[in-house]
Design brief:
Structural class: alpha/beta
CATH class: Alpha Beta
Helix content: 25-40%
Largest sheet: 7 strands, mixed
Number of strands: 7
Radius of gyration: 15 Å
Mean pLDDT: 91
Number of domains: 1
Distance between the termini: 20 Å
Shape: globular
Strand content: 25-35%
Order of helices and strands: EHEEEHEEHHHHE
Low-confidence stretches: none
CATH topology: Pyruvate-ferredoxin Oxidoreductase, domain 3
Amino acid sequence: MTEEIIIAGFGGQGVLSMGKILAYSGVMQDKEVSWMPSYGPEMRGGTSNVTVIISDERISSPRINQFDTAIILNQQSMDKFLNTVKPGGLLIYDPNGITEHPTRKDINIYQVPASEEAAKIGIMKLFNMIVLGGFLKIKPIVKPEFIRKGLEKSLPERHHHLIPENEKAIETGKNILKPINVL
């Protein structure tokens, strides 16, 4: 099993954190992992993306141009990465701020209304964990106990009391996932 993922959005949406949690979770599950971030100098508000590869085998290169999964959090990233999803692959996106919804028929497309749900909960910082939950429902490439370990590893210790809320947000994401185009 090898899963090549691009996660893209604006800085401040938790793009890099989501990738880091996935990567740490893969490491804790004894998988081969690559985590390669890319972001502009403006950080919050600027574009941000991270490539995560989780595999049972050695990873030959972290630089790839086609992905099994794209997790998209804004229109700019949709424009840039929609066509990098391999045929038969997966696109998950938050519809908030998306003006041109994807219409490809050769990939699986799901929406996770995470912005809306995080606003209802009243904690916008859980947005990325809601999206992650949607992804993990479709592709459970790491087990829940390793996601917890990934959260413990990537969150500063002073925020460990928030881990149960993050886990709850992941479950919420699994429950609000909406299929748009399923092959």
